[in-house]
Design a protein that fits this description.
About 25% of the residues lie in helices and about 0% in strands. It has about 190 residues and is mostly helical. It has two domains: about 60 residues, no CATH class; about 70 residues, no CATH class. It holds the Pfam family Amino_oxidase.
Length: about 190
């Protein structure tokens, strides 16, 4: 951002943006980070960055290292799925067994969480499938659907009601929730 957006440009500073998956006990965390204060989140993040980059951040860095000038914490509790081990096997590939049907989205196979970055990479991978098909090149192929998904599909007798946030606030439609207002229902 500091390279491409004039309002963030600086000769002696750089910007770091971090996006975290849902960090709550439901997702396997020891702490409910969604409920933590902004200061707790920022302090824990800076400590972890200092641990990962000891020569750039924190007391071991030359001249004290990088200094946090400004921070903003935005909570979007249901913005991405919980990245628990083993979930990747349930993601479909971009290529499908249906002619002229290719899938792209944060839900499909790619190396990121369900996020904007994941959706962009998935779109790139889907475009590669289309290009490969158009010139007759062999592509990565269709990923098998996990057996447990097939079983659930075959044994399902009733339609499941959708779960998620309900209401007319942005979070109900995948947007960030900041500010105050009406009640948002979390099942």
């Amino acid at each position: 951002m500091s390279t491409c957006c004039a309002e963030y440009a600086s000769e002696d500073k750089s910007m770091l943006e971090l996006v975290f998956a849902p960090c709550s006990p439901v997702a396997g965390s020891d702490k409910n980070w969604i409920a933590a204060s902004d200061d707790e989140i920022v302090d824990a993040t800076v400590k972890e960055l200092a641990r990962l980059f000891p020569t750039e951040i924190g007391p071991g860095a030359p001249n004290g290292g990088a200094v946090l000038v400004k921070q903003t914490v935005v909570r979007v509790p249901r913005s991405v799925y919980a990245a628990t081990p083993g979930r990747g096997k349930f993601r479909p590939s971009q290529e499908s067994p249906i002619d002229n049907f290719v899938m792209a989205g944060d839900f499909a196979t790619q190396k990121y969480l369900g996020s904007m970055e994941g959706a962009v990479l998935s779109g790139k991978l889907a475009a590669e499938v289309i290009c490969d098909r158009s010139v007759g090149r062999k592509s990565r192929g269709v990923r098998d659907v996990h057996d447990s998904i097939k079983e659930q599909s075959e044994n399902r007798r009733e339609v499941k009601k959708p779960v998620g946030v309900r209401g007319d606030y942005p979070i109900a439609f995948g947007g960030g929730q900041q500010g105050t207002g009406g009640n948002v229902y979390h099942p």
